[in-house]
Design brief:
alpha/beta, Rossmann fold, UDP-galactose 4-epimerase, domain 1, eight-stranded parallel beta sheet, 9 helices
């Protein structure tokens, strides 16, 4: 299949590019490199351009005879979206509508959207299932939900097949260590813990130790970035005209901040300097059912996040592996 991957030079997108190419698909990356990295994707597959550039989009779609799009390009910092909502509505919503209109002009009807569980807001139960009401509580979640609504309307009117894939915390890196997390500033817990262990930052700041959890620290669902890439490809291969897939992606098991720190210390053999910070209040929902699950647990995410050049290696082998369901 001939596939355009927007935001394909970013963290999650670059892993998708790597997987799709390995599976024999013709892939082109469309990225303005505001967050992505040129070195993360093959040079001959990269189109450096912005989604606001309609002529560049048209040229890419026509020249490469694109059959489907996987859309990762978005800003994704919740706090920033509250401080600067205009940035998020312009990029995440307006630019996505630009992309969708370009696809409509060129009769491209398969679309996989990298959405977010932030569209649910404060859930009534966890793990979150697809029947949970979507009530986002920040501009980032609002922009993603607005795109989901637009996709449903386009599918109904123009015969599109689309998938909206919702998830929270991507983690890990490619098993060969060639690509992985490289954010500036870094906001993800696993690389922050590893950076603290390596002396690249002074400490890991915890945000509360009085949560109603087994060890008192906040619990999150982490999914390996390669599982995310696999899920996007599986969804794409399922799409037919009129298909609408709305799926949550996760492992079905939460890991606490302390779990992550303990695993990083076990993997590296070194202690992480930790400073306790103020708790970020969040209500703890009741238990519920789980849905699609990745197959790589936190020990694997931590191990694969250890990058060459930092005194560690990228390996995937672990004793704990979560199963698919």
């Amino acid at each position: 299949m001939r596939i355009l991957i927007t935001g394909g030079a970013g963290y999650i997108g670059s892993h998708a590019v790597k997987l799709f190419l390995a599976r024999g698909h013709e892939v082109w990356v469309y990225d303005n490199l505001s967050q992505g990295h040129r070195a993360a994707v093959p040079a001959d597959r990269l189109i450096v351009a912005d989604l606001a550039e309609a002529q560049r989009l048209d040229h890419a779609l026509v020249t490469h005879r694109v059959e489907a799009v996987v859309h990762y390009a978005a800003f994704a910092l919740v706090g920033e979206s509250v401080k600067n909502p205009a940035k998020y509505y312009q990029n995440n919503l307006v630019n996505t509508l630009n992309l969708m209109d370009a696809l409509r002009r060129h009769d491209v009807k398969r679309f996989v959207f990298s959405s977010t569980c932030a569209t649910y807001g404060v859930p009534e139960k966890v793990p979150i299932t697809e029947d949970e009401k979507q009530r986002p509580i920040n501009p980032y979640g609002n922009t993603k939900l607005a795109v989901e609504h637009a996709l449903a309307d386009y599918a109904a009117a123009y015969g599109w097949g689309y998938a909206a894939l919702r998830y929270f915390n991507a983690a890990g890196a490619a098993p060969d260590g060639q690509i992985g997390e490289d954010h500036d500033p870094e906001s993800h817990l696993i690389p922050i813990v590893l950076q603290a262990i390596l002396g690249l930052r002074p400490e890991v700041e915890g945000f509360g130790s009085d949560y109603p959890t087994p060890d008192g620290t906040c619990v999150r669902d982490y999914i390996h970035v390669d599982d995310l890439a696999e899920a996007h490809l599986l969804a794409l291969e399922k799409l037919q005209p009129g298909t609408q897939l709305k799926l949550n992606l996760g492992t079905g098991r939460g890991y606490s901040v302390r779990d992550v720190i303990d695993t990083a210390e076990a993997v590296t053999g070194k202690l992480a300097p930790v400073k306790e910070g103020r708790r970020c209040w969040w209500p703890l929902p009741k238990e519920g059912k789980r849905n699609w699950a990745g197959n790589r647990a936190i020990p694997i995410c931590v191990r694969s996040s250890r990058r060459p050049g930092t005194g560690t290696t990228a390996i995937r082998k672990a004793t704990t592996i979560e199963g698919r369901s």
